[in-house]
């Protein structure tokens, strides 16, 4: 299952964002940020304690089941009374949740987390970025391993000179995507697709911001 | 007019190139001094492009200075800082101003440099940049539009013969040749037996290969490169040889080793020439050449 991978913002940044705001309502999420332990019930409780110690008045808190879901709107109505007293919401969901809440409420929203990437859980507590949704998928030529996402430089014609014992020059914990692709294509006897000189990528395949209407 | 560097490449003589780095700032005195020292001794001078992702005076400006001083520049261009529009525009400008050689590189990751929060562009990769030059030479840009006045370059790229694993690197090397690369300057090589293996493979291709020589300045520097620089392998014997140099003579030892390596490369006709990198000690390049018997 894919997840929105988040990380707590530095405390100083949150302090700055909340400067002059006294009454706070805290919102967590029961899905991705619960799994990553950045915005589940325990983290919301810890945030409540921390903000209280900083002299804020926490008017209430809740953990939405799925912050990015349409039901968030109903939940916001249900908690209306506690929320209306707040100067701002401190939101411990990913940025999708923050934007969904902002869409359905007139309050100032303050994200407590940074959203890093959409990732796949590869081991308990370990998440890998697998797709940057570039709109121009080349997995068919790379053995199902994405260099646009998994190569730090997004290279499509093979490795740079920074391959270090099969690892990436930026982090010895990260595999070199092109070493993985090479090994996979070698096993599949498909190295010829790596030998093809790929044209420059189309960076405008889906014009950002994306917007689609599907005929369902 | 064909570049004098290209003429030298095709002459069959043992080629020597070296490089100088532009300064951080506008004071070009030191770079000009290095150019002055090298311009009549080597076949061409590379001008590095924000080397190690450190923002500096541009390689294009440095290459023009080499030209103005009567030398033969090789303009280094990385794909890290410019998208395809900016790269093509700079190529038009370089060609129009008489720069005739370009070395295409991917570029180091942004995080190694001094603007760690900058966006790494990598709109093109090094092989695509070589191909882009070929297309400009045919009078057409990457958008398929006709140029009014075209370009002509001697096109180069790099390869890392000590990369691990090596095979993916070689596939990329072959793509650079397919894209139109005419010469290669390699990442630093120290184990010449390994390099000979690489050259046995590389010689099947119609491309000139200049072996990268980085001056060893001390044993700790050699160990540092082994630990931190991808694709560089200083064999233990050379590290020991550097360490055995009496205090105050390590640099002389490094010059001796570089000279010895170049001599062997030339004597055994292993490759077409050398690219000497003296990173920060450019004034020592003539000494290295003397040690190699090249002066």
List segments of chain A where confidence is low: pLDDT < 50 over at least 5 consecutive residues. Answer: none
Intertermini distance of chain A: 24 Å
What integer is the average pLDDT of chain B? 97
- Please tell me the total number of domains of chain A: 2
Main β sheet profile of chain A: 4 strands, parallel
Regarding quaternary structure, what we see is: heterodimer
Mean pLDDT of chain A: 94
Shape annotation of chain A: elongated
Which topology of chain B does CATH recognise?
TIM Barrel
For the biggest sheet of chain B, the summary is: 8 strands, parallel, barrel
User: What would CATH call the architecture of chain B?
Assistant: Alpha-Beta Barrel
| Rg from Cα of chain A | 21 Å
Strand content of chain B: 15-25%
* Count of extended strands of chain A: 9
Shape of chain B: globular
**Chain pair forming the biggest interface:** A-B, 31 and 36 residues
Summarize the structure.
The complex is a heterodimer of chains A (216) and B (295). Chain A contains nine helices and nine strands.
Can you lay out the helices and strands and say which pair or pack?
The complex is a heterodimer of chains A (216) and B (295).
Chain A (H helix, E strand, L loop, with lengths): L1 E7 L2 H7 L5 E7 L2 H4 L5 H13 L3 E8 L7 H7 L1 H5 L3 E5 L2 H10 L3 E4 L1 E11 L2 E4 L17 H4 L16 E2 L2 E5 L1 H11 L4 H4 L21
Parallel strand pairs in A: 2-3, 2-4, 4-5
Antiparallel strand pairs in A: 1-6, 6-7, 8-9
Chain B lengths: L3 H8 L3 E6 L8 H10 L5 E4 L11 H10 L4 E6 L5 H13 L4 E5 L20 H12 L16 E6 L7 H13 L3 E6 L3 H11 L5 E7 L4 H10 L7 H9 L5 H18 L5 E5 L7 H7 L4
Parallel strand pairs in B: 1-2, 1-8, 2-3, 3-4, 4-5, 5-6, 6-7, 7-8
Helix pairs in contact in B: 4-5, 5-6, 8-9, 9-10, 10-11
């Amino acid at each position: 299952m894919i997840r929105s991978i988040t990380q707590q913002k530095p405390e100083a940044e949150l302090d700055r964002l909340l400067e002059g705001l006294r009454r706070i309502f805290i919102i967590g999420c029961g899905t991705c940020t619960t799994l990553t332990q950045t915005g589940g019930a325990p983290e919301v409780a810890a945030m409540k304690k921390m903000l209280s110690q900083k002299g804020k008045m926490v008017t209430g808190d809740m953990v939405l089941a799925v912050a990015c879901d349409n039901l968030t709107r109903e939940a916001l109505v249900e908690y209306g009374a506690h929320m209306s007293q707040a100067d701002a919401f401190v939101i411990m969901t990913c940025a999708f949740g923050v934007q969904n809440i902002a869409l359905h409420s007139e309050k100032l929203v303050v994200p407590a987390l940074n959203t890093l990437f959409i990732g796949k859980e590869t081991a308990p507590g370990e998440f890998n970025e697998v797709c940057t949704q570039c709109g121009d998928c080349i997995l068919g030529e790379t053995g199902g391993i994405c260099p646009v996402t998994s190569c730090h430089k997004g290279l499509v014609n093979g490795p740079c000179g920074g391959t270090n014992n099969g690892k990436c020059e930026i982090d010895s914990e990260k595999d070199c995507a092109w070493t993985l692709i090479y090994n996979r294509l070698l096993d599949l006897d498909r190295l010829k697709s790596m030998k093809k000189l790929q044209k420059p990528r189309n960076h405008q395949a889906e014009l950002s911001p994306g917007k689609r209407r599907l005929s369902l | 007019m064909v570049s004098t560097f290209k003429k030298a490449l095709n002459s069959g003589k043992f080629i020597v190139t070296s490089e100088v780095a532009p300064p951080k700032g506008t004071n070009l005195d030191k770079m000009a001094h290095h150019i002055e020292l090298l311009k009549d001794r080597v076949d061409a001078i590379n001008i590095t492009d924000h080397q190690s992702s450190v923002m500096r005076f541009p390689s294009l400006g440095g290459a023009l200075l080499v030209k103005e001083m009567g030398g033969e520049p090789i303009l280094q261009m990385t794909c890290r800082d410019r998208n395809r529009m900016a790269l093509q525009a700079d190529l038009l400008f370089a060609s129009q101003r008489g720069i005739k050689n370009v070395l295409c590189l991917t570029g180091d990751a942004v995080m190694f440099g001094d603007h760690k929060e900058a966006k790494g562009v990598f709109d093109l990769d090094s092989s695509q940049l070589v191909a882009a030059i070929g297309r400009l030479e045919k009078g057409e840009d990457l958008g398929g539009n006709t140029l009014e006045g075209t370009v002509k370059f001697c096109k180069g790229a790099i390869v890392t013969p000590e990369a691990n694993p090596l095979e993916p690197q070689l596939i990329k090397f072959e793509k650079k040749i397919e894209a139109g690369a005419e010469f290669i300057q390699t990442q630093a090589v120290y184990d010449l037996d390994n390099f000979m293996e690489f050259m046995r493979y590389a010689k099947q291709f119609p491309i000139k290969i200049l072996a990268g020589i980085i001056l060893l300045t001390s044993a700790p520097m050699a160990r540092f490169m082994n630990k931190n620089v991808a694709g560089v392998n200083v064999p233990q014997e050379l590290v020991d040889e550097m360490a055995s140099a009496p205090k105050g003579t390590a640099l002389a030892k490094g010059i001796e080793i570089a000279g010895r390596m170049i001599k062997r490369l030339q004597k055994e006709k292993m490759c077409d020439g050398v690219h000497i990198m003296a990173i920060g000690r450019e004034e020592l390049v003539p000494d290295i050449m003397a040690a190699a018997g090249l002066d």
